[in-house]
Amino acid sequence: MKKADYQRTAKLFYSATGIDITVYNPDGQPLITLTDDRAATKFYGSFPFKKLSNSLNSSGYNHYIAATKLEYLIIKLTTMAPKTGIIVAGPFITKTVSHDELNNILIANSLTVSESSQLEQFYQGLPILSPAKIGDIGTLLVNLFNHKLYQPNQTTITEKNASSLPNPITIINAQDKAQIERRYAAEQALMTAIASGDELAVKQQNSSINRITELFSNRIPNKPLRSTKNICFVYNTLCRIAAHQGGVHPVYLNAISEKYALLIERQNTVTGLQSLTTAMALAYCKLVATLSTNGYSPMIKRAIDYMLLNLGHHIALQQIATEVGTNPTYLSRKFKEAVGLTITDYINNRRVAEAKKYLVRKTPSITDIALMTGFNNVTYFIKVFKQLVGKTPLAYRNNSNRRES
């Protein structure tokens, strides 16, 4: 099989399955890579070609599970004789990855809280394959790549006489009109609540949201699940717009929007979708409550956004000043006037708030949490944490675990 044939076959596989695929030559160099998210490949790591190539089954497909919980299907390319290349399809997963597993992956790869949402989004976006699906795709790989690809001709058949269509104009009666108006009023109330970070007001809209999803469950005849998913996608967009109006940076909105788009598509019951929509609205509202920069000047907004987006890394005053286009002294003075905290105190408060989220679990270790949240050593982390919380990180963790048990 020639390189051009590999390319055509790889494109056919990718188009049919939506699973990333790479063709490696016998030296371990990628000849073709097809993926819809090249930015996410930073989480793959380098593929252990030499380690695997000698242990692969030549006559069938191989299911490889990496330490990062990423899974791949691999076949040997016997048509590259006398040497052998390989085809790698993936990554995918066979079950959702837990928060604890994500934390372990974060630590093992020296990542911080600044990358945690991207990592979570990456894993949530992976295809989840059943054992039967893995078998089908593995069989498809073996048959596609070890035989010559046949390119069929296309024949187009077009109907000559247009069939009559029903009258597309629908008369709106008074009851339907009132129902539509109530729906739009409920949506506006929800958006206002999210934009203001008012969790109580969002919760009060739960019954309205559920009524609207029920109302639209028959929009596509005989497909209530598909209809409800469609209205949930609309709500995802409305929530994103509202949170943006509430002053949340687009980076956070992009992450949460993609997260819920994937969760909506994976749901398989209307009841589950209703619960998910309620949780989604609250999640957007909490973003506004914790990350909104509304009410600040453009300079202070940019400074806060820079600090929040880089919280897990070293942040110097000069870096922030350069980012917002001013000098450090002026920025420090204006920041203290606007926020009521020094820049250092603001960063420490935010880092401790992130650390608390990890301390309610038994893992990771306190040292790992300190490094993940941007503290350069554990002693300083413990000192700052005790100053702000009134107890050490270990005491906070122990209290949290006792409350759960």
TrEMBL record:
According to the UniProt entry, its GO molecular function terms are: DNA-binding transcription factor activity; sequence-specific DNA binding
Keywords, ordered alphabetically: DNA-binding, Transcription, Transcription regulation
Q: Which Gene3D superfamilies match?
A: Homeodomain-like (1.10.10.60)
Pfam families for the chain: HTH_18
* SMART domains reported for this sequence: HTH_ARAC
InterPro entries (alphabetical): Homeodomain-like_sf, HTH_AraC, HTH_AraC-typ_CS, Tscrpt_reg_AraC-type_HTH
- HTH araC/xylS-type domain: which residues? 301-399
Q: What is the name attached to this protein's record?
A: Transcriptional regulator, AraC family
Tell me what organism the protein belongs to. Lentilactobacillus kisonensis DSM 19906 = JCM 15041
- Taxonomic lineage: Bacteria, Bacillati, Bacillota, Bacilli, Lactobacillales
